[in-house]
Amino acid sequence: MMHQSLWNQLRNAFSKKEKDNNTILTNDINDPQNKVRSKEEETSDFSQILKSQNVRVDVSASSEDELLHYLAQFACEKQSGLDEEKIYGQFLLREQQVSTNLGDGIVLPHIIDDSVKELTMLVIKLNNPIMWDDEKIDMAISLLIPKTEPNFLHVKYLASISLLLLKPNFRYALNEATSPEQITDMFINSNN
User: Fold this and answer.
1) pLDDT per residue over 56-106, tens digit each?
2) End-to-end alpha-carbon separation of the chain, Å?
3) Cβ proximity of 169 and 176 under 8 Å
4) Is residue 31 part of a domain?
5) Domain, as residue range, for 88
6) CATH assignment at residue 151
7) Contact at 8 Å (CB) between 73 and 84?
8) Does residue 46 sit within a domain?
9) How many domains in the chain?
10) What is the CA radius of gyration of the chain?
11) Inside any domain, residue 35
12) What is the helix (H) or strand (E) element at residue 138, kind and residue range?
C-alpha cells in the first residue's frame, strides 16, 4: 500500500483548515479575518536555522540514494559528532515511511536523531534533475532535528516551508536563485 506523500498530507491539512472556517476569504487587508489569517501564515525566523554555509548549489547527484548520501555527508560537515551512515540510514527510513517529495521539483527529507545537537536547515540545489518517486526533482530542503527538541519547533518550520512553497512567486524565485546567499536571503526575508 502506497503511503500518502508528505506534501499531500500538508496540503490536505491546510485546505481542511480553510474548509472548516466556513468564511469567504478575500484579499481585503482591512478584513479582520485576513488580519488573523496573515498572522497565522507568518513564517518562522529562518535566520535561526539557516546560514548561507548550509546551502549548496550546482551539486551533482544521479539518484535519490546518491542525494541522500550527499545530505548525510553535508550534515556531518555542519555538525560535529554525527555518524554519516546513521544519518543516511535515518533519511532512508524516513523515505520508506512516507515520501518527502513535495512536487514541483522539491523534496523535504528530514530526520529526528539524538545525535543532532541543534535544529538545522540544509538546502541542496542540483545542477541536473534526478528522478524521485517517478518525478524529476532538482532541490532538497532538509531539516536535522534533535530528538529532545523543546516545543516541537521543527513543526513550525516544516509548516513555514510548506506555506512558502505554496506561493508560486516564491517557488519561481527559488528555482531562479543561483547562489547560496540568494536562497538564504529568500527564506530569511520571507516575512518582509
Assistant:
1) 999 999 999 999 999 999 999 999 999 999 999 999 999 999 899 988 899
2) 42
3) no
4) no
5) 51-188
6) 3.40.930.10
7) yes
8) no
9) 1
10) 17
11) no
12) strand 135-146
Residue 14 counted as domain residue: no
Nearest to 44 by CA among 178, 157, 163: 157
Which grid coordinates belong to 168?
Answer: 508560486
Q: Distance between CA 191 and CA 45 in Å, rounded?
A: 8
At 41, the amino acid letter reads E
146-188 pLDDT per residue, tens:
987 666 778 889 889 989 999 999 999 999 999 999 999 999 9
Report the C-alpha gap between 172 and 169 in whole angstroms.
Answer: 5
Output DSSP code: residue 12: H
Our CA angle for 64, 123, 135, nearest 5°, is 35
What is the C-alpha to C-alpha distance for residues 59 and 86, in angstroms, rounded to an integer? 22
Farthest-apart Cα atoms in the chain, separation: 53
With beta carbons less than 8 A apart as the criterion, state whether 107 and 137 touch.
yes
Find where cell 496573515 sits: 38
Tally of helices (H runs) and strands (E runs) in the chain: 7, 6
Integer angstrom CA distances of residue 98 from 6, 62, 94: 6, 21, 6
